[in-house]
Amino acid sequence: MPSPALTERARLGARMVVAFAVLAISAGTAITQYARVIAAGGNDHQAGDWLISYPGAFVRRGLFGELLLGLTPPGATTLWVLFGIQVALYLPLFGYVIDYLFRSRFSWSAIALACSPAALPFIGWDPLGGFRKEILGFLALVLLAFARRRMSRWLRGLLLVGSLAAWTLGVFSWESLAFLLPGVGFLLLADDAIPLRRLLAAAYTTIGVVALGASVVAHGDVGTPARLCQNVVAHGLGNNLCTGAIAWMGRGLDDSLRAVGQTLPVYSGYLFMLVLALLPIAVSPWLRRYWPWALAALVGVAPLFVLGIDYGRWIHILVVEVMICIMASNVALIESKLWNPLSASLFITMWGIPHAAPTPPLVVGWPFKGLLATVTQWLQAGFLGRP
User: Distance between CA 321 and CA 162 in Å, rounded?
Assistant: First the structure.
């Protein structure tokens, strides 16, 4: 008869296999699919959005693209450099999540949080939803979370400088990242883990507010997409990158509200998925202790649901923001009796979230996504010869 210690090691090993399998399959699928997109010349959102620059004058969302186009040689090399940067931006987040899983001894509650289809695996179950500019905001939050730990003053200083730099680059490359300020506030102000936390909170807030204000003042006009596209084409890249995100730079709030209004029929489906996505948070002791911060995060992200149709991405952003805050807290604050081998396994494998509302609105049910759907597609492609 095996000893209790041996049995526990076996159970721990099984939990580790489950968690690493989900993270590895989702990450591998996302990177592979996006690499194919880059090899084909990129697309108008995952790549094109990052190429928005300053076409002769300051315009919202242009900081990253201005730096990228200014520092890379013309041609396809730019897209592969962008691909490398985007993948690299995910590494600290994956590292932080894996470190948390080890600290929590891969409990089923921690696995439900970290491997939720709305958390990191989101980018694998719907690869078109990954590699967007929110990863700059995630980087700022993760570096801030790391800085809360006991370490030398110099290392903490480097992490804080890196986080503030990522935040600045992020909000001036996509102003909506300022809606992550509740997450920044929690990591700085929920306790006294970081020195000068109020001064730092003021700095993050000021930078975010300035970026939001600048996006209103320099919103872009009907001629902005053409000037942005000229920059892209002059850099040796294709016109295919000029639709989507770049084209939307010439549109106003009315166009965004109209697009959202046209997709209202699918809101009920996303509401159900939001409830599912928030389940590991809702049943956690962390929520009972820090519910005002969770509510602030929800209110902060809420405007995105009015401004754009990428409802799956907005849910993903909210979940990752709160997930980082939970992981920065005591590991015991995630534990819930709801999660066991069966419930957690079903939760992390049986569903996934489409990154955006279908256009035109979906009328025949939701697409099947998630780990099970991905593995099923592999089997069809590998054994049945289906695409």
Answer: 18
Q: Are 96 and 252 in contact (CB under 8 A)?
A: no
Q: How far apart are CA 129 and CA 354, in angstroms?
A: 8
249 neighbors 57 (Cβ within 8 angstroms): no
What pLDDT, in 10s, does the model give residues 115-163? 999 999 999 999 999 999 999 999 999 999 999 999 999 999 999 999 9
- Determine the Cα angle at 313 with ends 286 and 123, to 5°: 90
Q: Are 164 and 140 in contact (CB under 8 A)?
A: yes
Q: What is the DSSP letter of 355?
A: S
**What is the C-alpha separation between 312 and 274, in angstroms, rounded?**
9
**What is the torsional sign of CA 216, 45, 26, 341?**
positive
pTM score? 0.95
Q: In the chain, what percentage of residues exceed pLDDT 70?
A: 95
For every residue of 167-178, DSSP letters joined together read HHHHHTT-GGGG
Residue 330, Ramachandran bin (φ over 0: left; ψ between -120 and 50: alpha; else beta)? beta
- The pLDDT tens digits of the residues spanning 321-377 come to 999 999 999 999 999 999 999 999 999 999 999 998 766 555 556 788 999 999 998
Cβ contacts of residue 308 below 8 Å, gap of 6+? 256, 259, 260, 314
Handedness of CA 73, 78, 84, 90 (dihedral sign): positive
Whether 58 contacts 218, CB under 8 Å:
yes
Q: How many CB atoms lie within 10 A of CB 199?
A: 9
Angstrom distance (rounded) from CA 109 to CA 65: 39
DSSP element (H, E) containing 344: helix 341-349
Measured CA to CA, the distance from residue 68 to residue 77 in angstroms comes to 11
Burial string for 135-161 (b: 16+ CB within 10 Å, else e) reads: bbbbbbbbbbbbbbeeeeeeebeebbe
Give the single-character DSSP code of 131: S
Instruction: Of 77, 51, 54, give the one whose Cα is nearest residue 65.
Output: 51
Query: Which residues make Cβ contacts (< 8 Å) with residue 40, sequence separation at least 6?
Result: none
Q: Which residue type is seen at 63?
A: L
Q: Measuring CA to CA, how many Å separate 107 from each of 13, 102, 140?
A: 11, 9, 27
